[in-house]
Structure formats: structure tokens, C-alpha cells
Amino acid sequence: PCWTGARTEPNMPEDDHRTPVTIVTGFLGAGKTTLINHILKANHGKRVAIIENEFGEVGVDDGLVVETKEEIFEMNNGCICCTVRGDLIRILGKLMNRRERFDAIVIETTGLADPAPVAQTFFVDDELKEQLYLDAILTVADAKHLGSHLDEVKPDGVENESVEQIAFADKILLNKVDLVTPEEKTALVNKIRGINSRAAVIECVDARVDVAQVLGIRAFDLAVACDFDSEFLDVESEHRHDETVTSVGVRVPGAMAIGKLNGWLTSLLRTKGEDIFRSKGILRVAGSDERVVFQGVHMTMEMAGSAGGKVAGWKEGETRESRFIFIGRNLDREELTEGFRACVATE
Hints:
By secondary structure, this protein is α/β, with parallel strands linked by helices. 28% of the residues lie in helices and 24% in strands. It is built from ten helices and twelve strands. The protein has a seven-stranded parallel beta sheet, with helices on both faces. Strand 6, helix 7 and strand 7 form a beta-alpha-beta unit. The longest helix has 15 residues. The radius of gyration is 20 Å and the shape is globular. 39% of the residues are buried.
């Protein structure tokens, strides 16, 4: 049942002492971590805590977030909207018990999270409710790939997470607009409007937006969420992910033969890319001190090295290894693991 007496109004008093929390959601590869990096690097004068949730047994996102004085907390191998929700409550509790307060908390969900149960946390836990308020749900949308995910037909009882992410958004960042034609963009915006007509849509490239448009905007309204989903505050409500979507993580101590790896990945994504929603990795490269980052969304792939200044180099004391994660439908764990390991350079 959805009772809106404790509703979060966009016009809450300015002297509200509670800390604002922003949920950043969006499907796999939309650009959530890119947005987090933009927030961390922007000159806004706020002290921001970041809580990251990664889907998969091998964490990669910690190595993709820029070096910063801000504090970053990780929750791996479980989806924030179900299995690790207790971890979220514990981390938030620890943050609130600190003497030094944060000006804002940003939670980055996995690409497979339904934002509703995460948002629910701030209304069903009395202690958190006293100290925190949900400022906004920001959905980062991939202009190139979102349309196909919105159209995907799921089995009965299984949520289409990309639809839920758009539906609950208070603001939608339409990212990667440089990769689509004006006609494709218009068609996608119309599709988004058919799901959520009230959220502002901000077009961007590389998730570059004015931070004042995404933090401290007091945009979440519990009544609107309940209007869309009458069971929004029901902690017992059923929440099912598509069980055909899994992750495969690989970690190897050896350096990679980059040419061989590039060839394997190109072939893999060309033939299986439709079902590989997201691939990303941090690579140790044979014959080089460079730290290389790989990012893939379906068939699109990109590698960037620290020598070019696009990504950070190895930190002092950091274990130099190669780690990779694939997220997709009906993944063959053995094939992916053996394929990746076969690209390790011989000594």
C-alpha cells in the first residue's frame, strides 16, 4: 500500500537539515560512471560521498572512477535493489554517524537495478528518514542503444529494468546524442515521453551537464512514484530480474598481449555483441607500464591507455593485473574465461 502522508515535496523548507541523496540509474553502458566522474571533477564546492554498486563477481568500476579526495564506497556481486540492500542501509548509517558531514550522497546503481526499491529505502527506514531525504532519481539514457532495450519483451513477471529506470526518473540525461541522427533522437525522446512525460530530458555527450541541474534539485515526489506504482512502499513486493542475464568476471595476474586481445574482443563483440550488453576491463599490457581501460556496449568498443592521459596510470602499491567483466544474456562462462586467458602474453 502506498501512503503519501510522509511525502517528499519538491518545495521542502530551505532549512531542512537532512542530507540530500541522489540515485543515479540507467541501463548498462549508459554512462553512469562517466557522470559520477564529471560530478567528482566539477567545481561545485560540495563534499560528496559516492556509493557504487556493481553487478558481477569481479569489480572493475573502482578502477574507472577518477582519483579524488571524496569518499567512495563499493558494494559488489549483488544488485542494490535486492540482495545488497542491507549493505546500503549499513553504509548510509555509517556515513550519518560521522562527525564530518557530507553535503550530498550519490548512489550509483548497477545497470540492472530497478530504482524503486532503492528509493523505497529512504521512506521505510525511520532512522534514515530522519537524517536523509531523496533529492532525485537521475536516469542516464544511452541514445544509441536504449530504444532496443525499451522494446525488449520479457517473460511474465520479469521486469524490464530499462523501462522502470525511465518511468521513475525525475530527470533523464540523454547521453551519447552525438552517436545518433536527429531523426533517431526524436523517435527515442517520443518513446521516453510515452513512458514518462513529466521528467526533464537533458541532452548531453560524455555525461557533461551542469552539476546544479542534477544535485540539490529537490525533484523527487513520493506521490508521483506511488501514482505510477501503487506498491512502491510495499517492502514485500515481488522483484524479479531476468535470469538469462548474468555476469562473467575474469581476473589474471599476467600481462595481456594487446593485439591478440583486441582481435579476440573485436571478433567476440561482432558475433555475440547483441547479447553482451556491457563489457569493461582494466588491463596490464605486456612490454609496457601503461594501464589500459577497455569499455564496450554491445558491438561498440573502445580502449584507452594512461600514456595518452585519458585514464589514470597505476597507483603506487596497486596490484598490476588484468580484470574483466561481461554482462549479458545467455553468456558462456567457459568460452569467455578461456578466450580472455588465451590472450595473456607468454613470458
